[in-house]
Amino acid sequence: MLGSPEVLSLIIETAQDYAFVLVDSARTIIGWNAGAERLLGWTENEITGEDAGVFFTPEDREDGVVDREFEKAQSTGRADDHRWHIRKDKTRFYASGWLYKVEGESFSGFVKVFRDLTEMRIAEERLRRRDERFRVLSENLQEFIYISGADGILTYINPQWTDYTGLTLSDTQKDSGVSVMHPDDSHNVMAAWQKAFRSGEPFEVQFRCRNKQGEYRWFLSRAFPVFNSEGTVEQWVGSSTDIEEQKRTQAEIESLNVRLNRAMQETHHRVKNNLQVISSLIEIQAGKDPTSLSSPAKQRIGQHIQSLAAIHDLLTQRSKNNEDATHVSIQIVLAHLLPLLQSTNPHRLFRTDIEEMILPVSRAAALSLLISECVSNAVKHGTGAIEVSLHSKEDGSKAVLEVCDDGDGFPPDFDPMSAANTGLSLIDNTARWDLRGEIAYMNRPEGGARVIVTFPILE
User: Which terminus of the chain is more exposed, N or C, with fewer CB under 10 A?
Assistant: First the structure.
């Protein structure tokens, strides 16, 4: 019964989603169903007698598509037809169907069956264009772009990843790229990925990645879940950005901040101590004569201020230029100080013997102040050469400073604690408290005073 003409005719007429077009051997349309009328716009009476190529696009007709389709159906019994067609009102639609050859006792010709898939075609085209835009974008970005399925397995990586690491997609799928991650970072990366995979929350981590030359660079990797209409994760899309320069800049800024803070602390300490020294000098000098300061006292204070300024300028400049400003060469410090002392006392001869040693900045500043004051006393009490020497002891743990002059020397009953001498008070306090050392006052056999200060090199 299903094969009876009445039943087949009923099926064809009620199949509204499919167009059935009956064509004779001369390629003339001799009938079609309601589905064809709805899809193409012509009534059966209007279309009967027209060439079967009437609903093909002009370019396809000109290109011989209609001829080839009928020739193939004639020779093989069937020809596929998946292309754009044209309606009566000249609008276009995308059809998918077939042209069959039909041979019977009462009819010899063709039947064309197709349906409108325009919306699906447009959706596919949009998807194709979207994929093409993504491909062009991902292949021209500097970042690594990757996609993984809901199971976390990579399904796509852009060429930049392969160019950098030498790993293909299949290589990377084997261990998720752990083989090119820094050993110290791989555990954190995989732990963060597993956490994001379980929670469905965005993934973000920084890690070092090795290139084909074996060099590591820092990368920031982020991935976001893509949800389907049911609210479950369908895939993950992510990128990894090279942040090596940012990391270096950040490290440099942190280092500069450390150096700045340290320099500010040291500068504060030096300025505070220098002001205390100047204040003490003025108070001691003023104690002798409350109404005024003598010219020698003013000259002495001025010399100290110049010495302190020179030391402070040197150490501050070194803090700017040297990453490790906690220690300083004493030869460099005294190379600034001793010429200054010589210039303020041009008529005296200076003999110096300075052994190179590296001292903490605070100790170098205190030693410079001590030498300046010892030289001031030597200038005051002698007329000849002033000798300054600095050497370390055999074990290298302590340094010995000697300052000598050719004056009258110290009296036999000399007691620095009771001596009403501004310079000696400053010398004694600096040696004992700032340098944590020991000081000895003695006379030289050939005449003149000798001040010997022994102090630890390290704080």
Answer: N
